[in-house]
Design goal:
alpha+beta, eight-stranded mixed beta sheet, five-stranded mixed beta sheet, 27 helices, binds zinc ion
Length: about 850
């Protein structure tokens, strides 16, 4: 039985736990339906606590026996845990529980995936393993003994005993329970080692199912690069004798940073040239880095409570983006991050799910692993670094590691190190953590006798969690260009702290053209009337690669909005500007590929809604199609040369040089397909010897309404490779014509390979439908209905994935009343499903009631 009324938990109610945990010994006797977990935990009264009530979290556990200092006790048990009278001094708690890993479909706690035992404890999964104070501020040293008939038995820390059927692991570093992990199964290791900066040798292992050994090499190299980078850039050395990564097929998220034993969704670590795309390789490199970097930012220094989630996530996302920028192209990484931020975080920030980077209340913490906490959290770190400068950022981080190692911290602790190092008062800056919503920045210019003045005004809409918004500190990186395109004022970061504030630039020979928010220096919406000619000028001349891209993006958005609302033809400034970019062989091909990418259809829907026009998904789709065709015609003379230039000779490597060429080649091919009906795409498909070329060709063919033979051949070729078949499901739906998308998705849900309990396959299918904007928003409501049907079915099995996918409906108020009422009906239907999980209940009510 579950509690029916979800409880709201508040940041302001935080109190420390009444006891410290001095040590934890766990023994696992593994059995699919009846695993026995025995715990021996040394507790002592916590001198910093006032409330010494002994409460241990525990859910879905069968208590076999419990004892305190060897004396049997009978605790009082509820749905959420147990209480028990305890001595006033230190004592040893022992208990034995039984759990059912095989029956655990929620993939939280200890569960089974293809015969392998695996855990996921963040945020509150450990309470499904044994009774424990399952909160991040309770840190302890763990020793774990595992008994089970498996060749590989893993847990955190260093191995003390390792053998068939029995292992003991000891983790010397105090950690919260959410970082606990256990894996047992028939696994094979891809092994290597790393010599740390102080000369220690660390054994590295990537554990996979037999047959996947050939997909480990890239992940292992990425791990070694991450270890080296963290030593060189942040001075962080690894601290155990071994570092293990395990790939698992059934996993709710990308990966998990358990101490010394990272568990990865197999899609986030396994890759070979034949089965993974360049984008997969890049993502794997970034995720491996991210989880590895958590060893210091998250594990050695953790969060006091879950409200502080951004303390570890914002910082670690920021660190992994620095890593990718260093290894690959910094401008391409920045642009890609901003595209993601606008696609995922802005809608959240501007809709019913808006919450501050550090939320002040929640019902289900699993619903707060959001783009706001992660991506906006990372933007906040980037702004802080920009404001204090690189040298002080480095000093502040050194102080953070020195002062807080081994602690569970807060955002206040984090900001304090910056205040101590720089002497700055960060009180106002802290509003980035407490105010929800995307600030808007409007700017007006004035030119007077050699002096150019910019008048800025910032505003933030009030929301449920931010009723009285106050001005924030907004770093505005800015440069000025002269009429001939020369830079007349190099990049400078202005600090906007007031609601309105002006900045003057003197001694200019002519009225300059401003390049504002260079590098996207703050996550804000810039409101400025700019004519097409000025955008075209910036597209041609801006020295800041981000703003140059931004100018092209704005031109694309404007022309698409005109096309969608009035049937206007594609703008000449856009077409000519893009042609010039395409022709410019001095520009990195990956950068040119990003330039040529259109704004997504949901981004256009948002822009139209913001401009006061109800977006029509069909008209937006039509405009996007027409613009692509027009662009293809406009560029038809250069496309063959681009395709030739992007051809890669020699063996496949997912390195920046080759990846960059293939990215531009894919763009060019999609344009060429508009002209030749798929002849070259079909040729590329047949000749492809890597997944990047094979899949991009298949996508072009499907988008052109062709490719049925290739779809069948692709399935025959890859039916035994689950990760490739995920792509097969997704591509058919994403590329389907809008009027067919829901039907294609529905047919695929009837395919024997549609294993809907596997989160990857579920997302590859239903998530792909949501990505087909006009298809999901089909006027007959078929897209909404299909998604709702499956969310209702998935909820009892996997509430976490269900709740997260409800966010597909978060932008529903943008659309016409007919679509709104169809979505409302589906939200109603989900809300009314019997025994709906607290996760999904919270999400649906937030979306519906806003
Ligand atoms: Zn993380």
């Amino acid at each position: 039985m579950k509690d029916t009324a979800p409880q709201t938990i508040y940041l302001k109610d935080y109190t420390p736990f009444g006891f410290v945990v001095e040590s934890v010994h766990l023994t696992f006797d593994l059995s699919p339906n009846a695993t026995r977990v025995t715990s021996r935990i040394a507790f002592a009264p916590n001198p910093e606590a006032t409330d010494h009530k002994f409460f241990l979290h525990g859910e879905e556990l069968t208590l076999i026996k419990a004892a305190i200092d060897g004396q049997p006790v009978t605790p009082e048990i509820t749905d959420e845990g147990l209480t028990c009278p305890v001595p006033d001094a230190s004592f040893v708690w022992e208990c034995e529980v039984e759990i059912d890993p095989q029956g655990n479909t929620a993939l939280e706690g200890l569960y089974m995936s293809n015969g392998m035992y695996c855990t996921q404890c963040e945020a509150e999964g450990f309470r499904k393993i044994t009774y424990y104070p399952d909160r991040p501020d309770v840190m302890s040293v763990f020793t774990v003994e595992i008994k089970g008939p498996h060749p590989v038995l893993l847990s955190n820390g260093n191995p003390q005993v390792q053998g068939e059927g029995h292992a003991i692991w000891h983790d010397p570093w105090p950690k919260p329970a959410y970082l606990f992990a256990l894996v047992a199964g028939e696994l094979v290791a891809h092994s290597d080692s790393f010599a740390t900066c102080s000369g220690k040798t660390v054994d590295l292992n990537l554990y996979v199912r037999a047959g996947d050994e050939g997909k480990c090499a890239f992940g292992m190299e990425a791990l070694k690069k991450s270890m080296k980078w963290d030593e060189e850039v942040y001075g962080r050395e690894y601290d155990l004798d071994v570092f293990n990564i395990v790939a698992v097929d059934d996993f709710n998220m990308g990966a998990m940073e358990n101490k010394g034993l990272n568990v990865f969704n197999s899609s986030a670590v396994l890759a070979s040239p034949e089965t993974a795309t360049d984008a997969n390789f890049e993502r794997i490199e970034a995720i491996i880095a991210h989880e590895y970097f958590h060893n210091w930012t998250g594990n050695r220094i953790t969060c006091r409570d879950w409200f502080q989630l951004c303390l570890k996530e914002g910082l670690t996302v920021y660190r992994d983006s620095q890593f990718t920028s260093d290894l690959r192209s910094a401008p391409v990484k920045r642009i890609s991050d901003v595209i993601e931020l606008r696609a995922r975080q802005f809608p959240e920030d501007q809709g019913p799910l808006a919450h501050p980077v550090r939320p002040e209340s929640f019902q289900e913490i699993n619903n707060f692993y959001t783009a706001t906490v992660y991506e906006k959290g990372a933007e906040v770190i980037g702004m802080l670094k920009r404001l204090v400068g690189d040298a002080d950022y480095a000093r502040a981080l050194d102080l953070y590691f020195a002062r807080h190692d081994g602690q569970a911290c807060t955002i206040e602790d984090w900001l304090q190190v910056f205040e101590d190092v720089t002497g700055r008062d960060l009180t106002q800056f802290k509003r980035w953590y407490s105010q929800a919503g995307t600030p808007r920045l409007s700017v007006r210019e004035e030119w007077n006798d050699g002096t150019y003045t910019l008048h800025f005004a910032q505003s933030l809409a009030a929301s449920a969690s931010t009723s009285d918004p106050q001005p924030q500190v907004i770093p505005i990186s800015l440069g000025l260009l002269g009429p001939n395109g020369d830079e007349v004022h190099a990049t400078e970061t202005l600090e906007l702290t007031e609601a309105t504030q002006s900045f003057a630039f003197e001694g200019l020979a002519a009225k300059p053209i401003p390049s504002i928010l260079r590098g996207f220096s703050a996550p804000v919406v810039l409101d400025r009337e700019v004519d097409t000619a000025e955008r075209a000028f910036l597209l041609a001349y801006d020295t800041d690669p981000f703003n140059r891209w931004e100018a092209g993006r704005a031109l694309a958005r404007e022309t698409l909005m005109n096309m969608a609302t009035s049937g206007a033809p594609a703008g000449a400034d856009y077409l000519d500007g893009m042609l010039a970019v395409l022709r410019d062989a001095d520009l990195d091909p990956a950068y040119r590929a990003l330039m040529l990418g259109q704004p997504s259809q949901s981004e256009l829907a948002a822009a139209l809604a913001e401009a006061g026009t109800t977006p029509d998904p069909d008209a937006i789709w039509q405009a996007s199609e027409t613009l692509a065709l027009t662009m293809a015609q406009h560029a038809q003379d250069v496309l063959p040369r681009i395709l030739a230039e992007c051809r890669v000779d020699g063996p496949y490597r997912p390195d920046p040089d080759q990846t960059s060429k293939r990215a531009l080649g894919a763009r060019a091919l999609s344009l060429v397909t508009r002209l030749d009906g798929g002849t070259q795409a079909a040729a590329q498909y047949s000749a492809a010897d890597n997944m990047t070329l094979q899949l991009s060709a298949l996508g072009c063919l499907l988008a052109a309404g062709k490719g049925s033979e290739e779809v069948a051949a692709f399935y025959d070729q890859w039916q035994d490779d689950r990760l490739v078949i995920d792509k097969w499901f997704g591509m058919q739906i994403v590329q389907a014509a809008p009027d067919k998308a829901a039907a294609v998705a529905e047919t695929l849900t009837e395919h024997p390979d549609f294993n809907w309990k596997n989160p990857n396959r579920f997302r590859a299918t239903l998530g792909a439908l949501v990505m087909n904007h006009a298809g999901f928003h089909a006027a007959d409501g078929s897209g909404y209905r299909l998604l709702a049907n499956w969310l209702i079915r998935l909820d009892p099995v996997n509430p976490q994935t269900t709740a997260r996918m409800c966010s597909a409906f978060q932008t529903w108020r943008r659309y016409d009343s007919d679509r709104q009422s169809k979505i409302a009906t589906e939200l109603e239907r989900i809300a009314g499903a019997p025994d709906l999980s607290p996760d999904t209940t919270e999400m649906v009510s937030r979306i519906r009631d806003a």
